[in-house]
Description:
With about 375 residues, this protein is of the alpha+beta class. About 30% of the residues lie in helices and about 30% in strands. It folds into two domains: about 5-280, no CATH class; about 290-340, Dna Ligase, domain 1 (2-Layer Sandwich), CATH 3.30.1490. The strands form four sheets. Strands 1, 2, 3, 13, 14, 15, 16, 21 and 22 form a nine-stranded antiparallel β-sheet that branches. A six-stranded antiparallel β-sheet has the order 5-6-11-9-8-12. It has a four-stranded antiparallel β-sheet with strand order 18-17-19-20. A hairpin with a 7-residue loop joins strand 19 and strand 20.
Amino acid sequence: xxxxxxxxxxxxxxxxxxxxxxxxxxxxxxxxxxxxxxxxxxxxxxxxxxxxxxxxxxxxxxxxxxxxxxxxxxxxxxxxxxxxxxxxxxxxxxxxxxxxxxxxxxxxxxxxxxxxxxxxxxxxxxxxxxxxxxxxxxxxxxxxxxxxxxxxxxxxxxxxxxxxxxxxxxxxxxxxxxxxxxxxxxxxxxxxxxxxxxxxxxxxxxxxxxxxxxxxxxxxxxxxxxxxxxxxxxxxxxxxxxxxxxxxxxxxxxxxxxxxxxxxxxxxxxxxxxxxxxxxxxxxxxxxxxxxxxxxxxxxxxxxxxxxxxxxxxxxxxxxxxxxxxxxxxxxxxxxxxxxxxxxxxxxxxxxxxxxxxxxxxxxxx
Length: 366
């Protein structure tokens, strides 16, 4: 059974709408592994299409190093026929080859830029990681594989680019980061790695949105900027959410992760993989549509509409419609939208262990 040691909360950092709480947990030992980005930069790991024709949902990875190599969920890979992100955390055995599950984050390109992929300076934002977490758990239940909802990933990238007025000829997630580069740099400059930390909890406004924990402070320091940069993209979009994060919410999120009822599931490569999923009681699958700049948009979930209202990308005068409404109406006239939304209490956690000890664990919330 997977056990998580006591997690200490270190002094928090805050910039804009985002709060980072560094975490520290003492593990009895540390696995000998490299991060995928580091190994790729050193030529120790080669990531390429599975064959000349390519497959959107899988990539071929060869580890020629004598060490294990770790890719975490949401790691972005740039190049080849189109940019991808890892669907789940994967540990490659030394001197091994594997086929890993991925999702496309560049819908408008399917042609070679390079033979091999290169590492990216940013990981996927929590809004994408949450989609990956939910859909891979569904896929594991259905067929034992770590497939993801590609359509939902593309829809979220498109929605975010529209919200941030970011243009991309190939609908690439990486172009969204470049569009708000200055704001992301400000987050990165103000949210620095805390020596000794081997994890971090992130909140946007008053909502805890994610948590990552590693068995090594050195690994955490190496990956800090890339993953925090991913969280920052959602924070830039939610810049109006400046409510204070409550200490009790931090404590609850850390406790839910540490004492989760972990369920072992098939691993992609080396190590042991575990999952936990607690659905939100407020989830609503009804499709909604809204008018923006004279064009009809959707379908999206009511949670997306509520998020856009909170962010200020639409307002209560925006006309909306869902099946069952007699006509399009301003959001202010719709009870579910005119009042504050219920808190989304979803909790989806994953962990990868080696010989029973955690290597990387993460949780996506709210």
